[in-house]
Amino acid sequence: MAKALKPQQMRTYFALTEAVSLLQYAVQQQLRAEGDLSYVQFEILAILVDAKQPLTMTDLADGVVYSRSGLTHQAGLLERAGLITRRASSVDQRETVVDITPAGAARVATVLPGHIQVVRDLLFDTLSAEDVRSLGDIMSRVRDHMRSLPPRSATPRRRPRPK
User: Fold this and answer.
1) Are 38 and 31 in contact (CB under 8 A)?
2) What is the pTM of this model?
């Protein structure tokens, strides 16, 4: 049986999850209003802009925390909107390669100033430079621990049960 969390651990856990939820909600509202994008669509586009090269769907799946089927759906929406392109890899025909279009890069450039402002207003304006450094160090350590586990893309897909 799992050992109960201590009161301070519970307080920290709930404060973290609530702060993340509030920040994500505000960011999602801004992305919808200014760019007609969901958060995961913005993440996909931002990763592609940052990569400066096409990426495989597996690379994207490992970069965003999203199901494979959900990522495929979101990529389809972005492709239909003309913000990305998808094609079979010339190296491995089983892989799909994703690239951002000029329209996709322009959409990121449109929403990025508002995105930064929301993050600054809700997160960083309440913290000192030392707080930001400490929080970054702590959250990087937690993220690295979580990322040390096999990526979601390595998890076998569930097969339908035979009837």
Assistant:
1) yes
2) 0.81
